[in-house]
Design goal:
Pnp Oxidase, Chain A, two-stranded antiparallel ribbon, mainly beta
């Protein structure tokens, strides 16, 4: 008898599927309402790159005198430094109007799109800075850097319309 295999995944690539919203207010991050999500701004179409927006757990050693082996337990949970790089507009009407420094709210990441029944991750954020990138060969961009201000709500079910 063999172990039951994991179900086959429906594989995909993020472009054209993954979405990111900035939502200024969510009452309960573990269960945002459709109205709260719809009051946000869909950033997806202007995003050039995303970094971070994931959590990790430290490991804590738990040695004891009964063995030479040092076991470990999960420790504190942290969020990686996070940023979203977006295209700048030559008329200055771009992400700078939506996410200036010190703006607070939520970045909602929809890994498989904003579709009812799928899952999303809700990150409470504060904009740390939004520097203009200085590469003269690439399209003009702004890297919005975020601090994650409290534990994100992960794998939350996307509500229906």
């Amino acid at each position: 008898m063999a172990a039951t295999p994991i179900s086959a995944s429906s594989r995909y690539i993020p472009p054209g599927t993954r979405q990111y919203y900035f939502v200024p207010s969510i009452a309960t991050k573990a269960s945002p309402s459709r109205a709260e999500l719809d009051a946000g701004t869909d950033l997806t179409g202007e995003i050039a790159d995303v970094s971070g927006f994931q959590t990790t757990s430290e490991s804590q050693e738990t040695p004891d005198l009964g063995t030479r082996f040092t076991s470990k337990i999960p420790g504190r949970i942290t969020a990686d430094d996070s940023s979203i790089t977006m295209y700048a507009s030559e008329d200055s009407q771009d992400v700078r109007q939506i996410l200036p420094r010190d703006t607070t709210g939520f970045i909602v990441q929809f890994p498989e799109g904003d579709e009812a029944g799928k899952t999303m991750d809700v990150f409470p954020v504060k904009v740390a800075s939004a520097p203009k990138m200085t590469d003269i060969e690439d399209p003009a961009k702004i890297e919005v850097q975020f601090t994650i201000t409290s534990e994100p709500a992960e794998d939350v079910t996307v509500p229906a319309s």
